[in-house]
């Protein structure tokens, strides 16, 4: 049963002055809590990733939460770290991002909706910078933005395709100069990445100051610091920097903080959250967005340098029906009912699709990390299919492969997975190593990720991307980390290439500097930074009853 959050905080050794209550079941934690415990040894860190997602579902968040409950059930002092859900997917496709069944965050509805206001703070701070930049240009343009040089846009935490490309400043001189701009979803804001990677208030202020808002008439970058927009943004982000404490349905402590998407940003919760979690527990489970080709790779190359360490063990989530979808024998489409074939035993399809799992196990192991495969069980899985998948996973090099029933049975159902993870933590030391030096060139990093993680034969830069690479190198950013933006549904850039494609050419169509976050976004294919609602978004099923109770959202 959920406990008052003050009781959860006390169980972690947090003091009253380190906890600001947001009602009975959620709280903000002081950054001083981390500073006071920096001398303590780190807990073991378990990172949860998965096969490439399919409409059949994998349950990565369910596994992250239930594994924490499972560890608690076998007597370990566990803590779960997750991202905050975005309103866009909550009201769009997902209907929420707080887990499911017995493996949920509590209070899940609060987490799925406005929570403690972090997303609103990021939205407001981002748009405040936009307003200050536009006003700067209107009132004389002392920084010298070129006529089309102001490139900082605006953000909104709902999906609205009509705002992707817009014109502002219409209606005459009092309304500013007309210019083309647009909106991204808040999860894609550079401020979201800044908040996810920052270490403390001092680091936040440095990162905000170096945000690049556009270019001058001389072709040089103009920063938020140049127009003094960084300070006001920092004021709005003051409380959003602090991680949030909640719990699972079974009372396991949980931190939830920031929510960058894995296909266009880091896909991981905040560094501050992980750092604090590692000082409060004995074992921490944390989630990386999508598969090992996205969130996991970005954790290793973007998050780990800020965290100062890598994971001790990686759990790769797989499902029988997800891998059968990767076989190409069964046609599965987003937003449509799953075909009946997925409910029928088909070992051949499972073996074919398991090539996708093999690639993800390979990806993790080449970073020097031990792997446990979590087989999320669905009611339609046959015992034969589950055993075949377990044997395949071990044959691919996993230290163990365990059927998990966290959705149906919570911590009890995930206890076998917890025991397998603990065995690995106790017997197999991690030898974490990135795939390249952190100061390697941008081009080298792209080629290495494309070849070793995606399976590409070569990389092909468009003329636009080549021009941008020359520009970034000239500005002194030629050795920044790269944040790859590509489809989540395939190891490649093409969502229709299922399983484990190889020998393809990875196209790089554009690059975008995120100097505040400290990386360069590399776009492979047509990646939307502002999604749109489908014909029948999940939000249409949500409502309030006459007593103010929620309908249609967990």
Description:
The chain is of the alpha/beta class. It folds into three domains: 5-117 and 240-427, P-loop containing nucleotide triphosphate hydrolases (Rossmann fold, 3-Layer(aba) Sandwich), CATH 3.40.50.300; 118-236, Domain 2, N(10)-formyltetrahydrofolate synthetase (2-Layer Sandwich), CATH 3.30.1510.10; 442-523, Formyltetrahydrofolate synthetase, domain 3. Helix content is 35%, strand content 19%. Helix 6 (118-138) runs antiparallel to helix 9. The longest helix is centred in the last third of the chain and has 22 residues, at 406-427. It starts with a helix and ends with a strand. 55% of the residues are buried.
Q: What's a quick, concise take on this entry?
A:
This protein is an alpha/beta fold.
Please specify the SSE layout and strand pairing.
Layout: H1 5-11, E1 19-21, E2 27-29, H2 32-36, E3 44-50, H3 60-73, E4 78-82, H4 87-91, E5 99-100, E6 103-106, H5 108-112, H6 118-138, E7 145-150, E8 154-156, E9 166-168, E10 179-181, E11 183-185, H7 190-197, H8 201-209, E12 212-216, E13 221-223, H9 230-236, E14 244-248, E15 253-256, H10 271-280, E16 283-287, H11 292-307, E17 313-318, H12 320-325, H13 347-365, E18 371-376, H14 383-395, E19 400-404, H15 406-427, H16 442-454, E20 458-461, H17 463-474, E21 482-485, E22 505-508, E23 510-514, E24 519-523, E25 543-544, E26 550-551
Parallel strand pairs: 3-16, 3-17, 4-15, 4-16, 8-11, 17-18, 18-19, 20-22, 21-24
Antiparallel strand pairs: 1-2, 2-14, 5-6, 6-14, 7-12, 9-10, 12-13, 14-15, 23-24, 25-26
Helix pairs in contact: 3-15, 6-9, 8-9, 11-13, 13-14
């Amino acid at each position: 049963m959920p406990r008052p959050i003050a009781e959860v905080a006390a169980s972690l050794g947090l003091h009253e002055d380190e906890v600001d209550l947001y009602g009975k079941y959620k709280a903000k934690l002081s950054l001083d809590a981390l500073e006071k415990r920096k001398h303590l040894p780190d807990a073991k860190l378990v990172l949860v990733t998965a096969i490439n997602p399919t409409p059949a579902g994998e349950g990565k968040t369910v596994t992250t939460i239930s594994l924490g409950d499972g560890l608690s059930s076998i007597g370990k002092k566990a803590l779960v770290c997750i991202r905050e859900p975005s309103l866009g997917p909550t009201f769009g496709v997902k209907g929420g991002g707080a887990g499911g069944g017995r493996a949920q965050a509590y209070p899940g509805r609060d987490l799925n909706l406005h929570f403690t206001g972090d997303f609103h703070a990021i939205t407001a701070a981002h748009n405040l910078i936009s307003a200050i930049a536009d006003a700067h240009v209107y009132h004389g343009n002392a920084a010298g933005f070129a006529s089309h040089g102001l490139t900082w846009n605006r953000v909104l935490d709902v999906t609205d395709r009509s705002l992707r490309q817009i014109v502002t400043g219409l209606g005459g001189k009092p309304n500013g100069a007309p210019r083309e701009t647009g909106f991204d979803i808040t999860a894609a804001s550079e401020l979201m990445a800044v908040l996810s990677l920052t270490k403390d208030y001092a680091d936040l202020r440095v990162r905000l100051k170096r945000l690049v808002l556009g270019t001058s008439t001389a072709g040089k970058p103009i920063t938020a610091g140049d127009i003094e927009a960084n300070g006001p943004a920092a004021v709005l982000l003051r409380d959003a920097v602090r991680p949030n404490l909640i719990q699972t349905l079974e009372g396991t402590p949980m931190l939830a903080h920031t929510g960058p998407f894995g296909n266009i940003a880091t896909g991981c919760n905040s560094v501050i959250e992980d750092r604090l979690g590692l000082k409060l527990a004995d074992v921490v489970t944390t989630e990386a967005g999508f598969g090992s080709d996205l969130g996991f790779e970005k954790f290793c190359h973007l998050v780990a340098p800020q965290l100062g360490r890598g994971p001790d063990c990686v759990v790769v989530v797989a499902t029988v029906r997800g891998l059968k979808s990767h076989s190409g024998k069964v046609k599965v489409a987003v937003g449509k009912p799953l075909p009946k074939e997925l409910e029928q035993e088909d070992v051949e399809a499972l073996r074919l699709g398991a090539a996708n799992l093999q690639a993800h196990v390979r990806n993790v192991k080449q970073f020097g990390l031990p792997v446990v495969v979590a087989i999320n069980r669905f009611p339609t899985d046959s015992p034969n299919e589950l055993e075949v998948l377990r044997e395949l996973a071990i044959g691919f090099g996993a230290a163990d492969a365990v059927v998990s029933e966290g959705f149906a049975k919570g911590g009890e159902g995930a206890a076998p997975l917890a025991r397998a993870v603990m065995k690995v933590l106790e017997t197999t030391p991690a030898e974490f190593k990135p795939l390249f030096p952190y100061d390697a060139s941008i081009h080298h990093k792209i080629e290495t990720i494309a070849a070793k993680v995606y399976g590409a034969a070569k990389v092909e830069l468009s003329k636009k991307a080549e021009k941008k690479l020359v520009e970034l190198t000239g500005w002194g950013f030629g050795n920044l980390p790269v944040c790859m933006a590509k489809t989540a549904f395939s190891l490649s850039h093409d969502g229709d290439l299922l399983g484990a494609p190889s020998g393809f050419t990875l196209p790089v169509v554009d690059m975008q500097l995120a100097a505040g976050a400290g990386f360069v976004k590399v776009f492979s294919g047509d990646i939307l930074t502002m999604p749109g609602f489908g014909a029948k978004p999940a939000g249409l099923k949500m409502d309030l009853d006459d007593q103010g109770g929620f309908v249609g959202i967990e």
